Amino acid sequence: MDKRVLLIGSQKSFMVSAIAKGLENAGYEVIKSEFTKKDIKAIENKPEMYVLYLGDIDPASPERNGIEQLKYLDEAIDKERFYLYEVGNTDELEYAAKFLSKIKITESFLRPLDVNQLAEQLDMVVQSNALGDEQKKKILVVDDDGTMLRMIKTWLSVKYRVYMASSGKIALNFLQSNDVDLVLLDYMMPQMDGPQVLVQIRKSDELKNLPVMFLTSKSDKESVVSVAALRPEKYLLKTMPKAKLISSIDDFFDDKK
Which alpha helices (H) appear in the chain, and where do they start and end? Predict the structure, then answer.
């Protein structure tokens, strides 16, 4: 992946200019676009990383409320598969989330922005993509909640090759013919719950040593103890902050080196 980024925001904005300069100093080619649907669509040979500056949105202004642009990006990200980073204060980020799904955002940055932190996040994507899909660790995420599946995929796809299964049965069928390095398994699912899936994995000669982590909303001690004998690598909670969840997975793979 080239070190190119599309910076969306008013080109008259001091903050947009500062972000552009900071990214250029970090070695990025910055393609600039006004925050209009027409200007964004007109960009040819778009980069795979977008940075969206929300500071110039005015919800009270029909001309500057950004609704059309946010809805356009929400649809475009599914078709064009770009990484989207947004920059704004708390109110701006909450407003944008009404029209641009949070599960599609790679990362959100609060203003005032440390451009070095943004550059580090972009560097991570560039370095990961330089490996190629075949060199990335493979993770299967199993959850009957489609929103949770898409969110975890968005979070982890920066570094990992991520597959999704919406039920235990689908997961087990997938594992019969596909190798993965880790399974993230929901605890509560219909028909076949997480512990039942893990029992089947441990019974299989081919899969019995496959690393599995629970990723669940069940935090009671009884649930944790009841699956201890099945040897899950970790027991992670869906309520964990994004950074802590990703760090737990990163640490697991680092310890395997």
Answer: 14-25, 37-42, 67-80, 90-96, 115-131, 146-156, 168-177, 194-203, 221-226, 242-255
